[in-house]
Amino acid sequence: MAVRLIQTNEGGGIYIITFTCDGWKPSFQQANACNAVYKWFDCLTGKRAGIIGYVIMPNHLHALVHLPAVFKTPNAAVANAKRFLSYEIVRRLEAQGAEPLLQDLHAAVKKREARKGQIHRVFEESFDGKPCCSAAFMEQKLACMHHNPVKGNGTWWKTLRCTRIAVQDFILEQGRRCIKSWCG
């Protein structure tokens, strides 16, 4: 996963955001955390953000989002998402009694993180967040998200694929209009 510098979000923008579960563990799948991601999306849309497309895989998430200027940086939006999702994933894993995965997530905590009170490490530290300033780039990312679930050989993402991928024609057209209005 690429490490990105803090980006400003002056005037708002569209970003492709990817973040990964620590060690590529299937934490989203095992915790059945799709609706926790949807709650994060609700928080974003409550602040006038737009979800253009997304895919939730067993161990990572891709989202194409419009962040209005109220979000100073995409980094802050992702940090809040990872914190919220981490608490929810750990809560669900504890309720399931998923001790082996919880022990792995606990063992992944670094000393400096433990000193700050962190108990589990659910996500990789970094994330990939790139601004999308062309319709072609946005369409490429939507196509990649659409085809990502069918590359794997498991069934979890295939069986839920229709409910988790928001890449319908009207969303693509809405995204094209957004690109034209926000990027000139």
Q: What are the defining features of this structure?
A:
184 residues, alpha+beta, Alpha-Beta Plaits, 4-stranded antiparallel beta sheet, 15% strand
Number of strands: 4
Principal-axes geometry comes out as: globular
CATH class (first level) name: Alpha Beta
- Helicity range of the residues? 40-55%
Largest sheet: 4 strands, antiparallel
CATH architecture: 2-Layer Sandwich
H/E series? EHHEEHHHEHHHH
Distance between the termini: 30 Å
The CATH H-level superfamily is Transposase IS200-like
The share of residues in extended strands comes to 5-15%
Spatial strand arrangement across the major sheet:
2-3-1-4
Please, what is the average pLDDT? 80
Structure annotation, total helices: 9
Number of domains: 1
Measured on Cα atoms, how large is the radius of gyration? 17 Å
Structural class by sheet pairing and helices: alpha+beta
Low-confidence stretches: 155-171
CATH topology category name: Alpha-Beta Plaits
Task: Give the helices and strands, then pairings.
Layout: E1 13-20, H1 27-30, H2 34-46, E2 50-56, E3 60-67, H3 74-96, H4 99-107, H5 111-115, E4 128-131, H6 135-151, H7 156-159, H8 161-164, H9 169-183
Antiparallel strand pairs: 1-3, 1-4, 2-3
Question: Could you characterize the architecture of this molecule?
Answer:
With 184 residues, the chain is an alpha+beta fold. The chain has one domain (13-183): Alpha-Beta Plaits (2-Layer Sandwich), CATH 3.30.70.1290. Helix content is 51%, strand content 15%. The chain is built from 9 helices and 4 strands. It has helices at residues 27-30, 34-46, 74-96, 99-107, 111-115, 135-151, 156-159, 161-164, 169-183, and strands at 13-20, 50-56, 60-67, 128-131. A 4-stranded antiparallel sheet has the order 2-3-1-4, sandwiched between helices. Strand 2 and strand 3 form a beta hairpin. Helix 2 (34-46) packs antiparallel against helix 3 (74-96). The radius of gyration is 17 Å and the shape is globular. The two termini are 30 Å apart. Residues 155-171 have low confidence and may be disordered.
